[in-house]
Amino acid sequence: MTVAETLAKAEQFLSSKRVSEAGANAEFILAHVLGCRRPELRARGARTLSPQEERHAWHLLHERGGRQPLAYVLGTQEFMGLELEVNPSVLIPRPETEELVQAVAALASRIPRGSSALQVLDIGTGSGCVSVALAHLLPEAQIVATDISAGALALAEKNARRHQLGRRIRFLQADLFSAAGGARRAWADIAVSNPPYIPSAEIARLEPEVLREPRLALDGGKDGLEAIRAIVAEAPADLKAGGWLALEIGHDQGPAVRQLLEKAGFKDIELRKDAQGIERIVLARR
Length: 286
Ligand SMILES: C[S@@+](CC[C@H](N)C(=O)[O-])C[C@H]1O[C@@H](n2cnc3c(N)ncnc32)[C@H](O)[C@@H]1O
What we know:
By secondary structure, the chain is of the alpha/beta class.
């Protein structure tokens, strides 16, 4: 079968499985199998797939048809222009989180440090996307990245090594803050987190693809704020005086998070909207 024929059949198959953007998904999978870029497929339309290529393509198409997220099927996701490995032990990095990284990178220039390194804590690092992107953007940063999931940490370390950033990121298995700073206190210039923030009862209503992502990465407890509450309560112990906390939050959590931060004594609280106009990023100073 030719590339063009396979693409047509693959799109039809994925549509029958209710995969959204079936045509684009078919193209991504075929481009991956043929080792080319998506726009190059058209020029290769008349080429016949080898039996191995055909088997490989249909194996991946069946995974996607079973509503496995495309990033897990392909094994990679781009984040801030960096290709990261992903697998079902980590959340697939989202575009909103790129805005969190950009906000933190901009904060970094406002922190007076002299010649010492910028100390950053990334809580719940998952694939390592936030830490890897920050280490890439900020050559002066030293990062401690924590996660409770051993599977996530193993992949995050791999992603750091993939981009030669492993020497500036220390990965620690920890339940939120425990062990993050070791014996040190008030050591971090910035604490950043994209914590699990979806209310437990809403999880069942998510798309089948999202349900393939780790529940630990999604479930924020009854009101979605459990992890955020713990972070707001515990961050001041790790942050230097005047240090910043930067959080990604759920679409309707802005007012509640502002209140939590005010109660904990944070200053200069700023809620920022994402590209969709949703309050998504919170910055606050200890
Ligand atoms: C929403 S995901 C974010 C992952 C990654 N930082 C990103 O932005 O794509 C939340 C992460 O927090 C981790 N996590 C959940 N509960 C935790 C806890 N109690 N302590 C540390 N990490 C936790 C999960 O394993 C998951 O990797």
